[in-house]
Amino acid sequence: MKNPTFTLDFVTRVGKNTVNMVNQLVDMLSFIGEVAITLGKSVMQPKRIRWRPILFNIRTAGFDALPIVGLLSFLLGVVVAYQGAGQLRQYGANIFVADLIGLSMLREFAPLITAIIVAGRSGSAYAAQIGTMAVTEEIDAMRTLGISPQEMLVVPKLVALIIVLPLLTVFADVLGIFGGMLMASTQLDVGFIEFLDRFVKAVGPTSFLVGVGKAPVFAAIIAIVGCYQGFMTKGGADSVGRQTTRSVVQSIFLVIVADALFSIAFSLLDL
Q: Residue 182: in which H helix or E strand, if any?
């Protein structure tokens, strides 16, 4: 026979966790609304846009991320081509490695791996920076001085990431395809010219645009979640670390969910 106390405690925990999740969802929606209003005001009044923080975030989130994004995309292209080489060789379909690499990298792997890397690098940095400012009461001081924290801290990061992530995705596309091309040349005897000739025929502009089109949505998710978790920081250094971890986990989870929804939508639209 089940222990009634255990059952009651379990139900209580489930109820509390559900209420907390609903409260967090409401808070995040409210935060998104505030950011959207602030961004709209900045667009209507361009003088309010803070270009220096935007350019700084473009450098830190974009240019500084090129080595790690390029390396991982190159290795991913190598792995995909290597894993597909054995199967393609069995059927004498070596040339179709260009289809495999092109479609998989441009449509799925490049935007997804880039978003995950940026979530780990920049999303966590946003949460840690804003969280530290919340702990040291700098954000309260900004509000006291009449400075909007969203305009000062969130909008520049959001705008910079929306600009940067599509460019990083294109960079990942190039490096991933180069890695697959190199592996195709060594494992399947498919030369660079043959590979590129088949690649142009197999991969159209739609596949490229589908991958790049996901990037701004992923960027918005990463920036908003990272900044939101930073504003939710309360207490001391332990809270900063906890919120930073949550920002990375939630960003990656939501990016993968968004990617799955994109896949369903593009399938229904026959893209």
A: helix 155-187
